């Protein structure tokens, strides 16, 4: 069977996803083109050899519409012969892009492929794609007559179900900033040209974050109209223990082991497992738990065999619930911080986490890494890799 390998992984530094953020004036096509161009330049790869570019993007509207992957390929100066497609599996979009890319290599459909993702949330916040329209239709409304809810309320339900208090959530958030601030991401980050100069430092990391400072923040999703439906809610989720709105892009160069050898490129890791699952769309962030069990059972790898684990920090309650159920060593989970500090540019987060996990394995000498991502609508992705 053909082995799919990771040759390189890059990302932009995070930008605050609001007007005035470091990347807010950079067109999202140019953000994505920046990481595509960096991948081929760093590897000295002829871009004509790229069989496909698969990009994750959640809000495929406005400047992110009309197949942003193809537009970024053209903006990066790749030959017109290089095709591209854009996919949406919500927050796991670029993780799914990497899975599709690697599976295409394993199946023999690709020799060289780029998986990537982008989101400029300063102009495309959550919900921008619907423009106030109904994205569900009558049949979904009939199945869920009480209505679907936003992720913030789902996070509140998870915090209540597992009994995570405000102090525990804030302590986890402070940990994310502390670890991210102490970490070296210089191998991952490529500079982005902006109207104000090059951007190369994560804007969302706040090194001085403390539990006391976070405790002063008000609940972000309080809606007392939901009290009758969910009496357990007591409003523990804040902007401080949630991932921030973020602008950014990331990309991973994937190819067959044989092609890498032929091109004289040194693989950094191989893909060893994939899984995806659906979960309750009300408590939509808990899919990381069953998808972890699924990928470990299918691969024959135990939780203690993992040297590092990335559980996307959409909210602090997500990795905390995962830890409560899977009983992994917490020191191996998000050891260089997570999305609470590094940001969550939705479509780009999957390949960003993949690159972060790869860097952790290389810096620590670890062998195996697991990446899991919760996703809107009640889904989750899991990916296993092994370092060379």
Automatic annotation (TrEMBL):
Molecular function as annotated in GO: acyltransferase activity, transferring groups other than amino-acyl groups
Keyword Cell wall biogenesis/degradation tagged: no
CDD domains recorded: thiolase
UniProt KW keywords: Acyltransferase, Transferase
Pfam families on file: Thiolase_C (PF02803), Thiolase_N (PF00108)
Active site residues per record: 91, 344, 374
PANTHER family according to UniProt: ACETYL-COA C-ACYLTRANSFERASE (PTHR43365:SF1), BLR7806 PROTEIN (PTHR43365)
Recorded family membership: Belongs to the thiolase-like superfamily. Thiolase family.
NCBIfam families found in the cross-reference section: AcCoA-C-Actrans (TIGR01930)
Name of the molecule in the record: Thiolase family protein
Organism: Galbitalea soli
Lineage: Bacteria, Bacillati, Actinomycetota, Actinomycetes, Micrococcales
